[in-house]
Specification:
The structure is a homodimer of 197-residue chains. Helix content of chain A is 42%, strand content 25%. By secondary structure, chain A is α+β, with helices and mostly antiparallel strands. In chain A, helix 4 runs antiparallel to helix 5 and helix 6 packs across helix 7. At the A-B interface, helix 2, helix 3 and helix 4 of A face helix 2, helix 3 and helix 4 of B. The structure holds a DNA duplex (30 and 30 nucleotides).
Amino acid sequence: MVDTDILLALGAAYKQVQAGEYIFREGSVASFYHQLVSGRVRWSNFDESGKEFIHNLIEGGESFGELPIFDGEPYAANAVADEDCVMLRLHIPVFKQLLTEQPELHFEFSRLLAQRLRFKFVLSKELGSHNPESSILALLKHLKARRKNVCSDCTRINLTRQQIANMTGLRVETVIRTMRNLHDKGKLQIEKGKVYC
Amino acid sequence: MVDTDILLALGAAYKQVQAGEYIFREGSVASFYHQLVSGRVRWSNFDESGKEFIHNLIEGGESFGELPIFDGEPYAANAVADEDCVMLRLHIPVFKQLLTEQPELHFEFSRLLAQRLRFKFVLSKELGSHNPESSILALLKHLKARRKNVCSDCTRINLTRQQIANMTGLRVETVIRTMRNLHDKGKLQIEKGKVYC
DNA sequence: TGGCTGTTGTGATTTGAATCATAATCAGCA
DNA sequence: TGCTGATTATGATTCAAATCACAACAGCCA
């Protein structure tokens, strides 16, 4: 989101993490603004029974973990490297100073928060409807619109059924069965197990 | 959120609506920043089957309908006057100009977005867990922390079971039974039907 | 005071997603 | 090419929330 040169000029540092490593944990206090350079970060919570709920799969170029920067509370979820990752980290006070000096950049981040919130609005509404079809379609529609987690030059969804299950609170089997139904109804295409929409 | 005098000086106008009237509808384009002076506004969507999902019950002093201001998309939900309401409205360009000139105020709104998003994080996680007890407790905990929809000088929850049902995607009967269980477990108090926590 | 409306409360039944079990495919790789 | 682990697929069963039906109660006001 922020130009790499600007971040580096302000003293941001690169950090590498291997797949599976935690970048930060739910409940811990934030010190940095994080921007992913390459790899994929899984942003998730675990409930009492140990089931993982994935809020977002962050890809190269995106920032993550912004909530504590703006509301001063601890992290709301865990960030785990889903693949080997490279990221840039900038101390929060420096980042906030940057936003103060560049109102357009601040508006960029307000836009980001608003977009994330809008998605949560739609998804929470669908989760509340207890209708697997509409939950899955809402998720896919969102991903497609944001060109997230899709093949860069086609319409193939880059997520496993398990990941979709973990993003909607459903079970793999339910996701598999529901997506087959959606395929039969023509609302998405499945070829050799790969999903296109 | 914004000082009333400042809003008026910038040309904001008062608007009154009667209980039940729509202030704006899902999908329509936004022109104003809205700030509630008195009354209560219901922020909700209807799903295909006509069931209402309430995202928020806005009370005096709060702003609402900020998403389109920041991401430029249409309204994500309906705003209906839950009681007779008085609100202040300011044209969006003027409002954004104000934020540009006052970075601290802009940070206030970033904080608001972050808080709303944090709540959605928690709630969507709970909705995904398909556990009525934790969904209801998460909602009540949030309301208590924000001192929202509670009696001003006690701990009585100012919501009906139906409203709680509409905010969690559950059914009234499930909410009633689950809250009785929570009462029996000592996790909240019910006296003459009124809920304290 | 009684009647009306909205809310809370409770039982019986249904339903669909979770769960359990197990098979079929696919992708990566030696 | 064949092996291996991850992913997709499918059938049978269970279980909890939705649904349906109706009773009890509280608050309001004519």
